[in-house]
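Lab meeting, item 3. Inverse folding demo.
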């Protein structure tokens, strides 16, 4: 039956796989549920939000955002450059760490599941200890994740294949045993962006701190994006 499938987890697993494929040098596009990605960006990063319509609490959250009509050509390239600079200069104060409230995980216990999530033959790792601040807890250095025992990445193209041990397929059905204990792992934040002291050093060895190459000279003033969406052309599409 259709109701027997975890459609949300499937969409997320597929999107994770496509985001991984899109980072490869030969990739020129991105598949997956991009509405989910777009709405996630709007929820967490106020600098990139368009206008928003009031809506009923029972309506899908993503449906309130008004997608702006964006320009093309040179203006689009200039806008992309502004976005990249904003991302490079993003600070902890520019992030809405708990857009769903500090206790959202109590309403959806499966959000604390840790282990692979699946879509068809795709399985992608999921670990809430990577993002404890979205639960209102201090960010720690995440524990080691469950990893595949083998993988195949061709020299060209964007596809890749990951091989998991058979027992991994059973983790999703044992949520009680695979649920992260927040109070054991960390403690509630005093400030929304609170981290342990050694976390930044750990993070910088595993991530790219900047999108653009640093330039010489004086730092440039921080750009501000002003979204002026007219209700006259309210939606080419609404997410």
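The presenter then showed the designed sequence:
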């Amino acid at each position: 039956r259709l109701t027997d499938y975890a459609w949300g987890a499937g969409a997320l697993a597929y999107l994770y796989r496509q985001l991984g494929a899109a980072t490869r040098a030969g990739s020129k596009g991105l598949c997956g549920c991009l509405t989910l990605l777009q709405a996630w960006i709007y929820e967490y990063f106020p600098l990139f939000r368009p206008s928003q319509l009031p809506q009923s609490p029972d309506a899908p959250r993503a449906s309130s955002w008004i997608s702006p009509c964006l320009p093309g050509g040179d203006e689009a390239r200039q806008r992309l450059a502004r976005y990249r600079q904003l991302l490079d200069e993003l600070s902890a104060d520019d992030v809405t760490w708990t857009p769903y409230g500090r206790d959202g995980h109590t309403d959806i216990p499966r959000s604390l599941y840790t282990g692979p999530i699946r879509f068809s033959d795709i399985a992608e790792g999921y670990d809430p200890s990577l993002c404890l601040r979205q639960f209102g807890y201090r960010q720690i250095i995440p524990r080691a994740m469950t990893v595949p025992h083998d993988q195949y990445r061709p020299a060209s193209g964007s596809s890749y294949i990951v091989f998991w041990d058979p027992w991994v397929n059973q983790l999703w059905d044992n949520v009680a045993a695979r649920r992260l204990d927040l109070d054991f792992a960390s403690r509630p934040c005093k400030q929304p962006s609170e981290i342990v002291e050694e976390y930044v050093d750990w993070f910088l060895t595993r991530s790219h701190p900047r999108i653009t190459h640093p330039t010489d000279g004086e730092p440039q003033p921080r750009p501000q994006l002003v979204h002026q969406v007219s209700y006259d052309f309210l939606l080419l599409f609404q997410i």
